[in-house]
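User: My instructor asked us to take a sequence, write out its structure as tokens, and then describe one feature of it. I'm not sure where to start. Here is the sequence I was given:
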Amino acid sequence: MDSLTSRPAFFPMMPADIDEVLSIETHVSAFPWARGHFMDSILGGHSTKICRIGGKLAGYLVVMMAVDEAHLLNIGVDEKFHGQGIGASLLRHAMDIGLNDGMKRLLLEVRPSNAQALALYRHYGFRQIGVRRGYYPASGGQREDALVLTRALEDIFA
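Assistant: Let's start with the prediction itself. The structure tokens for your sequence are:
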């Protein structure tokens, strides 16, 4: 990402973007969201964003605001852009969204088996505050726990 055309640019997710988003979601998630989840998020007023680099969809995020807390519901990065800092850019953007909306913290759930995501979240100061037992579907009809992580937002520029 060394030229102006390759810098991440964020835009509101529109219904016309959902096919592209789904093409990423189905490749990066073993249990992907369906079209209706993204459409409901857009229509429900959640902060739904896409990230483009040089015109190509690199990633997306969905953040829901509740009282004083932003909740990161979904985040994904196209495999072609893995290892290029896009996940970090999306996470920082999610924190900015929450801060700009007056939220005090960002909350998220993550699979304990998702070591890459856990490392990213911990790098950005997220700490575990709980476990949701059997939260995620897993292979063979099993369920996987979710680690509940949070991070204060008022100090993100400190």
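For the description part of your assignment, you could build on this observation: The mean pLDDT is 93. Try explaining in your own words what that tells you about the chain.
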